[in-house]
Amino acid sequence: MLYGYKYMQGSTMDILFIKLGALGDVINTLPLAITLRERLGARIHWLVEPLSLPLVSGHPAIGNVILFDKKNWIRALPEILGDLRSRRFDITLDLQRIIKSGLFCMASRSDRKVGFDRSRCKELTWILPFERITAGDPGDHMARQYLEFAHFLGAIPGEVRWDIPVTGKLPPGLPRDYVVLNIGATKAANRWTTEGFAALADALMQRRSVVSVLTGGPEDSDMARRIAALGHGSVFDLTGKTTIPELKEILAGSRAVVSCDTGPMHLAVALGREVVALMGPSDPRRTGPLNGRVVRLDLDCMPCNRRHCDDPRCMRGITVEMVMQELEEVL
Fold it and tell me: What is the pTM of this model?
């Protein structure tokens, strides 16, 4: 009630988000920023690392971005700490729940510091003297877990929205009708097979006359070349050739997106695309597409959440027909 009264009197509440890194995590936090902006009239400040900067900078719900360049952390750390100490925030939210984010939260000059409940904290951050949100389901989707902070602050969320702006400008030469095959994944155990993606590109061309656009990082370029060499379908290779803003436009212009559990999958969901997610080690209820289709096996070892696996049966066992069955329905 205090903050609602403050806003009603014409003042602006300043809330600092500490959510630093992974693309998918940052994307799933955007609905919280939108909710606090709309429900409380808050000005959102966001401490973020370079990878996710393009999605936070310029977003309509974000008022100010503070960049922490972790690659040059020796130089960047004193600057960030000085910046945090020079400002005054009403609330700081530790949404990362690791030691690094917790220390940044401690360093901020805030009337209130709020973090996850003890059971969902990592790296012993539960010992830090923050207010704690009510204990919740650690298996719920992360977007909804972040929205629990809105409930805690008295802001009732509405429909989950991301509101990521797009321009509609696509790279030159991109076909008008295409499906994105996002072949990369940060965790090796989350990757589907080269043969699977090649056969999927073939099936899309033969059955639907649809070109497959391959996306991923520079580390995925060799896999993309093997996919093109194995298949007979039409493949447009953009692995390692796109920035995050360019990838956003490519995903937004697609008819559908097939992806393993990785940041661009969440970005495609946020952009309202039809998403077919290939899930193995991770729990689709927690980190799968909030709105989308999931293709996975049902093995006793799933979900294991491993980064590496010597026998990734859960991903190898996904067949082209399983994926095409989902794609046929959305195409």
Answer: 0.93
